Amino acid sequence: MSAKSQKSASEGRYLSFQLGQEIFALEIKCVSEIIGMDKITELPDTEKYVKGVINLRGHIIPIMDLRLKLHLIETQYSKQTCIIIVDTGTNKVGIIVDSVQDVLDFTNKQIDITPEICSVSNLGIVTGIGKVQEKNVILVDLFAILASAKINFEKLRV
User: Fold this and answer.
1) Mean pLDDT score, 58-69
2) Beta bridge partners of residue 56, listed in sequence order
3) Which segments constitute the CheW-like domain (predicted)?
4) Fewest C-beta atoms under 10 Å: which of 20, 27, 94, 149?
5) Could you tell me the end-to-end alpha-carbon distance of the chain, in angstroms, rounded to an integer?
């Protein structure tokens, strides 16, 4: 994918979260809620990053481990591990992260375009690098993550 066709991060509010040693963030407007780890019902014949489903107040929500989706090293869940429930407008999905950090406001001056040096940036998942004080925050596109995921939402409808 060329840099021209890749979506770039834009200024706004982002929810930051940790995966391993890195801080990531996604646009907060997609976030519905944040919950602690819940009992996940595993589903057969799914990608490794699709951990299963949960029942959230009567709604079946597919759960994806973002660490595995981004090809990071798998670790055991801790007390800080949580699920970010995101809403695409047509579906809700839970994304497992190591911990939720903060809500960050980025201006365009604080965001650098991501070089196309890795597979996730080539898929449009990583849309930029935000700078907060002396730290880099990897900005991700929720819709690109879900578009590249193999989740059949129609089979999950209740």
Assistant:
1) 94
2) 59
3) 11-151
4) 20
5) 36
Q: What is the pLDDT of residue 45?
A: 86
CA distance 110 to 119: 24
In the structure, what pLDDT confidence band is assigned to residue 23 with cuts at 50, 70 and 90? very high
Structure tokens at 125: 């998942």
Task: At 148, give phi and psi (nearest 5°).
Answer: -90, -10
Taking alpha carbons only, the member of 33, 22, 147 closest to residue 94 is 33
Taking residue 53's Cβ as centre, other Cβ atoms within 10 Å add up to 19
Which residue type does 72 have?
L
In 101-126, which positions are buried (b, 16+ CB within 10 angstroms) versus exposed (e)? beebebeeebbeebeeeeebbeebbb
Specify which residues 136 forms β-bridges with: 131
Q: Residue holding tokens 């890749």?
A: 6
